[in-house]
Write a structure and sequence with these properties.
By secondary structure, the protein is mainly α. About 80% of the residues lie in helices and about 0% in strands.
Length: about 100
């Protein structure tokens, strides 16, 4: 789960970077390579995210709907924060209090 959580955060940050940094640079600063490179990195991370989410769903016994929700949140800006919180809840032992 730690690996999936890491990929989830990296993929989410790459999406935010693509949408809120690279695309404005392309539009307003005439820097089309920003989208090229950020898009390439995001594409690779999204493929990894999809594959690791499928493995995580299988290993943790998620329903198909939960897996589809996690997959959908991969294309929503800042959706990775919800996925990260959901994973932390699942991996935290019941007796331990969650911080933050």
């Amino acid at each position: 789960m730690k690996f999936f959580r890491l990929i989830s955060v990296l993929e989410g940050l790459s999406l935010v970077t693509l949408l809120f940094i690279a695309m404005p640079l392309r539009t307003y600063a005439d820097m089309p390579l920003a989208v090229t490179y950020a898009g390439w990195v995001h594409g690779i991370l999204f493929i990894l995210y999809g594959a690791t989410s499928l493995v995580a769903s299988h290993l943790n016994g998620w329903s198909v709907w939960k897996w589809l929700l996690v997959l959908f949140l991969g294309v929503v800006p800042f959706g990775f924060l919800y996925v990260d919180r959901m994973i932390r809840r699942e991996t935290t032992p019941a007796g331990e209090a969650e911080t933050a």
